[in-house]
Each structure stands twice: as C-alpha cells, then as structure tokens.
Sequence to fold (282 residues):
Amino acid sequence: MSDSQLEPTRPPAVAPGNVAVITGGASGIGLAVAEALIAEGMSVVLADIDAPKLRDVEARLTEDGASVATMICNTTAEPEVNALVEYALEQFGAVHVMFNNAGIGGFGDAWTDPIELWHRVVDVNLYGVVHGIRAALPIMQQQGVGHIVNTASMAGLGVAPGLAPYFATKHAVVGLTESLFLELEALGSPVGASVLCPGFVKTDLMNKEPDSIDSPLGPIIAEFFRTGVETGIPASDVADQVTAAIKAGQFWILTHEDMRQGPVERMQRAAAGINPTLNIGS
Fold:
C-alpha cells in the first residue's frame, strides 16, 4: 500500500458556504485570514477582546456583503471559547476552520517581575490555543470535516534572550500542534491541522505592550521587535499562505523564506553539542 493510500481523504475545509472561527480576529493576521476566507465564499465568526475594533470590522465586512458574526471572547477562559464555538453553530450551523490566533508578546523581566507575567502569557498564547482545539475538534470529528490552524511564530523554532515566556509558549504551540497532527493522522481523522510560524508581520502586536520595559534586555528586545513589525510583510501575504496550506493539508506554514535556515542551524548545533549562540536576528 502506498503512502498516499494511507493518508485520510478529507473533504475541503475551505469551500463556499463553509464556516471559520477566528480568535484575535479584529486586526492583523486574524482579520487578514478572515478576509481571505470570505473571498473564498465562507462565513466567518470573529472573536476578540477589543470590542470597539470588533464592531468596526463587523460593520465594514457586513457592508461589503460578507457573512460575518462577532463575539467578545477572552480566550484564556475555557467557558468563553466553548461559548464562541457554540455561537458559531447557532449562527451558521458548523465550524470547518478553527484559527486559534489570539496572542501577546508579554514583554517584561521573566525572572524578577511578578509571576503574573508568566501566567498572562501562558494563558493567552498556550491555553487559548488548547481551549480552541478542545472546543472545535469534537464538532469537526462529528461533521467529518475540519481544519485547525494554530498561530505560533518563528519564535517557536528559535530563541532570543529577554523574552522567555513568549518563546516558551510559541515552542509549546509548535509541539502541541505537531502532536495533534500526528494523532489525527494515526486515527485516520477527517480533521487536519497546521501550525503558523510567521516572522515579522505588520500588525498591532507591539501596541499591546508597555512603552517602557524595566529589564536588562527589555529595551533592546522591544526595539528589535518594534522595528521588525514596522518593516514586516503584509498580513494579507500571511493570509494567502494560510488559506493555501489549509487547502493542501500542509502542516508547516513558514511565511518567511529567509528565516527558514535559522532553525536548521540551531538543530545542527544541538546535534554537535555546541552551546547556543547569541544572534537576536536568527
């Protein structure tokens, strides 16, 4: 039996009339993916904690003829994410794509700031993804069709100093998504999974962070990230890659060709027993 015969045959998750649920959907990558899926003829449920921005987005997209619903949702709370998915079922009758995209940077001193810094970053970046999977997966399994996309980062494949909670959670999202993918494959599930690992993208990520960071490396790292975001690729480019990956059943979504060698070199150093090297740009 060939490898292709072993692969589960999956109905398309991206198709006219299908439904997507997107967290962190009021701006940036989330909104761009929503617009890309709307262009595919899909209905979209957008979730965010920014109520004014969410209302503005809903009004604009609806005026343009899109089939859109919105909901204020704090993804750190499992009941709210469960309610979000139930809301999508009430509004549109199904959930074909679950895009767990909400995330924060969590700038601060990981070792001397109150432990709440860790809890906040882990709750949003990791547990928000876990809650989304747990809410949507059983429905997708029952439907016989679905695809889950989790937003990690190139920070999930590499490391820099001064931002341990962020890097830790992004590594965790890569790991849990790969584990999910393999589990779905092993079970012959009709549900697919992808992990999104973007480099710098023009979003409002840094607007959610404090203006000044009181830690030894905080100002340097923050400036590096601000510059990267300001000069990053358009969110629409990421959205195109996400849409294509869902259609192709592709697990890895690495948006920046020029950043792909960094994780390879990191593993080569690990295999050779060479200590980590300080290169913030890798």
